[in-house]
Amino acid sequence: MRGVARPKKAKNIELYAPTTWKKAFKRDWQLYVLIVIPLLLVVVFNYAAYPGMRMIFYNYKPALGYEGSKFVGLETIQKVFQDKDFFLALRNSLVFNLLNLLVSFPMPIILALMLNELRFPKFKKVTQTILYLPHFLSWVIIGALGYQLFKPSTGIVNIIMMNLGLIEEGIPFLTEPVHWAVTYLLIGVWQGMGWGTIIYLAAISSISGELYEAAMIDGANRWQRMWNITLPGIKSTAVTLLIMNLGRIMGSDFERLTAFGNSSVKEYQYQLAIYIYEKGLAGNNFSRATMVGVFQSLVGLALVLIADKVAKKLGEDGLL
Amino acid sequence: MSKKQKKEVESINDGSRAINKIKISDILIMLILVILCLTCILPFIHLAAKSLSADSYVIAKKVFFWPKGFTFTAYKAVFEDGRLVYSFGYSVIMTAIFTLLGMIVCTCAAYPLSRRRLKGRNWLSFLLMVPMYFSAGLIPSYVLMNDLGLIDTMWALILPLIFSPYNMLIMKSFFQSSIPDTLEEAAFLDGATNFQTLFKVVLPLSKSIIATLCLFYAVGRWNAYADAKYYIRMEQKLKPIQLLLSEMVATASEAANSAFEAVVNIATPEVLQAAAIMFVTLPIICIYPFVQKYFVKGVMIGAVKG
Predict the structure, then answer these.
(1) A2, A155, A289, B291: which could join A150 in a potential S-S bond, CB 3.0 to 4.6 Å?
(2) Those residues with Cβ within 8 angstroms of residue B213's Cβ, 6 or more apart along the chain or in another chain
(3) Using the beta-carbon criterion (under 8 Å), do A290 and B104 form an inter-chain contact?
(4) Quick check: A66 contacting B, CB < 8 Å?
(5) What 8-state DSSP symbol labels residue A265?
(6) Cβ count within 10 A of residue A214
(7) Tens-digit pLDDT profile for residues A149-184
(8) Residue in B12, B104, B305 closest to A213 by CB
(9) Are residue B251 and residue B110 in the same domain, yes or no?
(10) Are A222 and B17 spatial neighbours (Cβ–Cβ below 8 Å)?
(11) In terms of residue numbers, what domain contains B16?
């Protein structure tokens, strides 16, 4: 409506014209009042935590506060980078996140392509609804369910396989590190596969039907259409999501890890979130845990910024 | 027009899914999808069967997808124990408060930021988005919560999370894309204030997004428990149900180390565990088919500007 002549009555409203701050407050004070509420929350619960990061430079003891705690300069940083546990946690986090991306990323695309080929709307709808189920469950439930299903001697999966004579002894799906890693990753695929299709199905539905018609007149079969029309049509969505996920490679999901944790798989389950919790809240080594947390946040931020740049370079929508 | 041509035209009119005969590939796709669906359903059927069976059959490994020695004993035990039931009620109330406050805060942020004429809009949205990309981490947050005196209170689970940048972005892009500027302008010309426009024009037109975001907030709060593990240290009564369940099954997962399995199975029978998991899961399984369409909508709006 900018530049459109307005009726005289509206002279003082000037809905879209830039104003001075004084005018802005006079006209929109109600909007500023509204936004103060979330701002206050963010300041009190997020920004106010930032000064706490200076714990890194102290040997911080909660009971003593900053005054009582000893200032140690960069010692904590040195200690963290000499800490075997830290490198174990870092290695596990990176490796597991990459593997997770590798196995979890393609599944929703494949599923979306399959769902798109379904010709019975009812069947499609029911299938989708069922596949969404794991997304609505918490990791505790999924973890508890996993233990119920996969225990070596009492889990139903092992019982069935033993009954069928496929195996002699129960497979330690969740109690031997390598088996655990595979199970952990596959359950991740299971949890996210249905939900992940939504975004791809939306992308597919925005592909012009004329393209398919033209291809069919040219005699392209189902696979050719899928390969030459559908896949290119969702490529940009996939690339954006991939970059976005790469930007999150430093994260680690405390709930998911603890839900599947047990003492015999520590070797792989020990990731940054676990490190921070165990050293910090459980072990009272606040400074070291803070240092690792800040390290994680900083690298994470850098990765997101890089991912955003890359996405924009490739001509996709950025993330920021 | 020859028969073949006619058929071709028909199929074109049908659009992309227009092959009239069911092919092997169709059956194959349906088969794969059915198997995947089964992986989503069967675990719960098994769990339900287990929770309704007599101990002895479960120990004898005879329970698969149908209860044997049908009994409600395990559920009775869950109700008599009372902890899960109490925690369930508490979690419902906490989630309701969280959702209500969350929606208020979300609207307070999204509406002003959706108005292009708001001076300082970019700065305000920058301030609100920073915490999404850089967090101080667990320990500084914990110390902060401690300083605020919120450790071991319900508010530790509510206040830090009621402003959700992600939900705010969804609401904001809904306001911007689905509510025509002209409508708002008309309200202004009639002399409505910003508040009046929000409450009388914008919000009544946003019922669908309000429903979606309410569900985002509610399900998010209902399922999360890491923060409860951090911030609820002593007060058993303030533990949400997910945390309680995780503590109940933690000993059990330790027991999966086969050396202990036999011992602990006697202490916490599988059946009881299955009943506890079912008790926590069932409400979600019953509700989600009816609310998932709102979720899908939210994801689509969120995807426009992720």
Answers:
(1) A155
(2) B102, B103, B106, B167, B170, B171, B298
(3) no
(4) no
(5) G
(6) 13
(7) 998 888 889 989 988 988 888 888 988 999 999 999
(8) B12
(9) yes
(10) no
(11) 3-71
Domain final residue pick, B41, B71, B101: B71
Are B67 and B83 in the same domain?
no
Same structural domain for residues B190 and B243? Answer: yes
The answer to whether A257 and A188 have CB atoms below 8 angstroms apart is no
Subunit contact A198:B246, Cβ cutoff 8 A: no
Tell if the CB–CB gap between B256 and A294 is shorter than 8 Å: no
Domains in chain A: ranges and CATH: 1-42 (no CATH), 80-133+190-313 (1.10.3720.10)
What residue of B is the nearest CA neighbor of A170? Answer: B258
| Residue B240 neighbours by CB under 8 Å, 6+ apart | B87, B90, B91, B94, B157, B225, B228
Do B59 and B150 lie in one domain? The reply is no
Report the residue of chain B nearest A256, measured CA to CA: B226
- Are B48 and B181 contained in the same domain? no
> What pLDDT does A319 receive?
63
The domain boundary, picked from B49, B71, B93, lies at B71
Averages of pLDDT over each 10 residues, chain B, 306 residues: 49 48 86 96 94 85 88 89 92 96 96 89 92 92 95 95 93 89 84 89 91 92 94 91 88 54 53 90 90 86 62
- Tell me the two tokens of residue B112: 């002003």
Q: Are residues B202 and B258 in the same domain?
A: yes
The answer to whether residues B186 and B262 belong to one domain is: yes
Reported as a single tens digit per residue, the pLDDT across A101-119 is 999 999 999 999 999 988 8
Residues written for chain B? 306
